[in-house]
Amino acid sequence: MSTQLTPILTKFWDHPQSWTMATYEDNGGYRALRSALEMDPVDLVQVTKDSGLRGRGGAGFPTGMKWGFLPPHDGGPRYLVVNADESEPGTCKDIPLMMAAPHFLIEGAIITSFAIGSDTAFIYVRGETAHVYRRLLRAVEEAYAAGYLGKDILGTGYDLDIVVHAGAGAYICGEETALLDSLEGRRGQPRLKPPFPAVAGLYARPTVVNNVESIASVPLIVGKGAEWFSDMGTEKSQGFGIFSLSGHVKHPGQYEAPLGITLRELIEMAGGMRDPNHPLKFWTPGGSSTPIFTDRHLDVPLDFESVAAHGSMLGTRALQIFDDTVSVVRAVTRWNDFYMHESCGKCTPCREGTYWLAQILHRIEEGRGTSQDIDMLVDICDNILGRAFCALGDGATSPITSAVQYFREEFEAGCHTPASELFPPAASTLF
Ligand code: NAD
Prior knowledge:
Elements: H1 21-26, H2 31-37, H3 41-51, H4 63-68, E1 79-84, H5 94-100, H6 102-116, E2 120-125, H7 130-145, E3 161-166, H8 176-183, E4 207-211, H9 212-224, H10 226-230, E5 240-247, E6 253-258, H11 263-269, E7 280-284, E8 293-294, H12 304-309, E9 318-323, H13 328-342, H14 348-365, H15 373-384, H16 391-413, H17 419-422
Helix pairs in contact: 2-6, 2-9, 3-6, 5-6, 6-9, 13-14, 13-16, 14-15, 14-16, 15-16
């Protein structure tokens, strides 16, 4: 396995007009679409399955298999919905991708829609990102003008419309069924699964919901072949991915590399830690809803299996890096405040549980914790995990239980000393 950086989706991001159709076409864009429209849709699904592409939105579900779950055509509509509601703390790859090279996503959405037999696709963008919404609208306009969208695409008889829709800024709308409710005009709250969207999704019709980076990878797989993709990465986590490094590294940003690269290698590529006097203390492998890792995990290969074998999740490859100036108690308290605020309120474990956790965490952060607080914290987390309606509740507990596992002494110190004294906020640029 190669561990070199692999600029593919990020290849021409530094071009002064990277987002235009002209730049995209100069770099080979829309050639895969021409080949795809000459293929049998069944073969397109097979190529995607053979490539080993797994969902890049966090869960890592095999993309081609998901497409294959759609029931046979019954003459009614079926939809592609692109989940562009990127909101997980630390996750910041889809937004730069859509800003810098939106045509990867548009071309991928056209090929995917053709493969699954859909004539309408939706891109659901996070509400706060008006700049992304505008950029996508412009890219879609360019694609219509070039004959890649609309009626009789490239003279093949295939019709497709893409609708770009901005949400209203709720984290829960990144959960695929809440997203579908929101797109239908309802308050975004998760639906019971099954039925999965593949069977009953948007307007109760068969729907494929895929993440931006997954769909953006499709033209490359179709253009270069399944083997080109599956030769990268590891045996079960194939291909490349965008790793988002934030926090205490010299050069935070997006680093595209084969899955299986390690944090040690990525930190080196990012110029090292921001201050050599302050070593790595803890980090998130996949955003703040995954269990944290410590300096002991620097050499864990960042693929789905290896990260899971070490007790966390690869998630969205959102690597938030914290040095020893940061209080882990303060960090998990802020994350839990976020989940408490964003809980949709539908289920009791998440709605009430995150609120109870917040009360205890704030007590500990302020040095007012009691001797029972740490056990109660872990007990509440255990009672939320697996009992919440969707992944939001489970995700809220992951950083807390893992932080107690690795840094229990810091939580114990919260029974007598405020985190602000142990870790003066001025010493850190984070939390
Ligand atoms: P999930 O494992 O329940 O589902 C993953 C995908 O596979 C879904 O599209 C689902 O419909 C499909 N699927 C699973 N089983 C299926 C079946 N039997 N038949 C048909 N389809 C099936 O995960 P999830 O709840 O969708 O997502 C959780 C992940 O989201 C977490 O791992 C987290 O990393 C990530 N996440 C990402 C963000 C972000 O901003 N990108 C935010 C929060 C969470």
